[in-house]
Design goal:
Length: 355
């Protein structure tokens, strides 16, 4: 991996004698990401934790200051949003403020999405260990050395979409910290189990109690999974991180589990369609290589209307609800509901799948 050079012609790692640490972290993270670290995950995390403790204790004072202060305390594009930049919401998702378990259980019987406000007030990630601080995220990722899988491109349905494994620091510098981001150059840490890879971030959040409820079997739920193999029964919720700049898109798709999507940093626009609207949403089929893409729509939900009408004449007849998901809010997405998601700013959120 190419290292950035200082004016003196030496990389910052070489200048501080940390080059060997970079290589060790790279080898351990590649074993974890590429091979799954089967049977070795705990050992790898112990090695990385010990190494980070050593680095924190022995690194030069100048390096410590750069890590804590060099990137400021906010993401540049998070500061320039106003109401004129936000989509107009015509058909809002039902909303509830910090619902009780009983209220949530009652709502699930409707098989409808639910916006939940004031539901994350106890998360350190929004307060004393803020994920909106680039300096804090760099500190938690070993000075940005940890490797992460990044999707390059606006959406996984685009022809030029690809994946790459890069350091967290490179991801931040190349995709997250620009004052004037290039919309044609988008990087996205998407659907990655970041919290098993970096447990220090896991302690900044908590699994919502709602994920330990038993969803009822309704007609809509049954329709959502009919004709498809049943997903495995989960013993614990599946956690995934979603972190990227403004403009990242998750195309219109469905998931095999109930989902609570929690917004920690920034804003996202979300549009949702019930499973009973599937016949108007043009699901893909099996693509080359035998990949089943039937959970993804052919339609770009925010494409120009004339393009949609010409190619997908039934799409605009489909009924939907929509919302802007703000920091500190959650969205319950019932199993099988189609959803399209676009980040309106730098955004960091966590999804919790359960069944």
């Amino acid at each position: 991996m190419k290292r950035r050079r200082s004016h003196g012609g030496t990389s910052s790692s070489e200048a501080t004698g940390d080059g060997w640490i970079d290589e060790v972290v790279k080898v351990l993270d590649m074993a974890s990401i590429m091979a799954g670290a089967a049977g070795r995950a705990e050992m790898i995390e112990q090695l990385l934790s010990t190494l980070q403790d050593y680095w924190s204790e022995h690194r030069p004072l100048q390096t410590k200051c750069q890590t804590r202060e060099g990137h400021g305390d906010s993401f540049p594009v998070s500061e320039h949003l106003d109401s004129s930049d936000l989509p107009t919401i015509l058909y809002p998702v039902q909303s509830s403020t910090a619902p009780s378990m009983h209220a949530f259980n009652t709502h699930m019987k409707s098989a409808q999405p639910l916006r939940m406000t004031a539901a994350l007030t106890h998360w350190p990630a929004l307060h004393e260990r803020r994920w909106s601080s680039p300096a804090y995220l760099l500190e938690r990722t070993f000075g940005g050395r940890r490797l992460i899988p990044v999707e390059i491109g606006r959406s996984y349905t685009d022809a030029d979409w690809r994946q790459s494994i890069i350091t967290f620091k490179d991801f931040m510098e190349n995709y997250m910290m620009s004052e004037h981001p290039d919309p044609s150059r988008v990087g996205y840490l998407a659907q990655h189990d970041l919290f098993s890879q970096i447990p220090s971030l896991r302690s900044d959040i908590a699994i919502p109690d709602f994920c330990y409820t038993t969803p009822p079997h309704t007609e809509i739920h049954s329709a959502a999974i009919s004709g498809k193999p049943a997903p495995p029964q989960l013993e614990e919720p599946l956690l995934n991180a979603w972190f990227g700049p403004a403009g990242t898109v998750s195309p219109l798709h469905t998931d095999p589990y109930h989902n609570i999507l929690c917004q920690v940093v920034g804003k996202k626009y979300v549009r949702l369609y019930s499973p009973d609207q599937t016949d108007k949403l043009y699901p893909k089929g099996v693509e080359q290589g035998g990949v089943d893409m039937s959970n993804t729509s052919e339609v770009d939900a925010e494409a120009p209307l004339e393009t949609i009408d010409a190619e997908y004449p039934l799409f605009r007849q489909a009924r939907y609800v929509e919302m802007i998901l703000n920091e500190g809010e959650c969205l319950y997405i019932p199993v099988g509901w189609w959803h399209y998601v676009r980040s309106l700013s730098v955004s960091f959120n966590v999804s919790f799948w359960w069944n």
